[in-house]
Amino acid sequence: MGILWSLVLGLWQLHCQSQGPTIGAPLMYQTGEPDATYQLPGILREISGLAWHDDTLWAIQDEDGLLFKMVPQKDAINISNFQFGPKDDYEALEWLNGYCYVVTSEAKLWQIDPKNRTSRRLPSFWGKKHNVEGLTVTEDGQGLWLAAKEDHQDEDRDVIAINPSNLENPSRPRFSISDDKIKSFIKAQNETGLKVPDRIAFHSSAIATNPITGDLFVLSSPEPQLLVLDSKGKIKSWQRLSALLYPQPESICFDPDGTLYIANEGKHGAATLLVFYPKKS
Description:
By secondary structure, the chain is mainly beta. It has helices spanning 2-18, 179-189, and strands at 23-24, 36-39, 47-53, 56-61, 65-72, 77-85, 90-96, 99-104, 109-113, 118-121, 132-137, 144-148, 157-162, 175-177, 204-209, 216-220, 225-229, 235-240, 249-254, 260-264, 272-276. The protein contains two helices and 21 strands.
């Protein structure tokens, strides 16, 4: 019993040490203490996208062209799915104007009508070099932000806005995310005594728009971090997340009340869904 207790205590201490302080503006969420945690079934072990629509969580995983409808209950989640496309590297989804959009790492965009169980592949628009990982609604609610995990030509990770109805004329990058920008922000805003890290290694893995503030929440994986930006791309907050609680954070979304949902791929076990309620000011 003594050995077991020492192991549990050691893991808890490691968790506390690895969950870094928030640099910049305070967050509305206790990101180290989820209000609810769900273990996801094996079919969602490689969950890669989350979105909220019509009082329901929707999800994808990154190999099969399946769209999942998830209804959290008290102790479990009821899950159903249907096939919308062939096998591919699906990375993110979002709802816009009654349709669900799913994007692959190579910026192939699918438009899905789950009610009628129909889907179609839209024209390519961005190329393969960006490794797309994030998708969310733009600040005006009329388009979609796409976030690149990496760019094979430089170190900046671009975020662009597109209109699914006019993909022939995608916008130029609206802003970019880079390790140097994050380091400069930490150096300027740090009031915690935290040493500016020598290595950031921020690779965008998911992006979502907070419906209360309009800010963009961007996750990084495999090195778990959370970056909060305004709609112009200005950094407001940064936090290094616990590697125990966030072994591989690949999905993020909000419901209309501001509840935050983050899903981890099952790196060494089952995938998990973490739920965070906004703190009352």
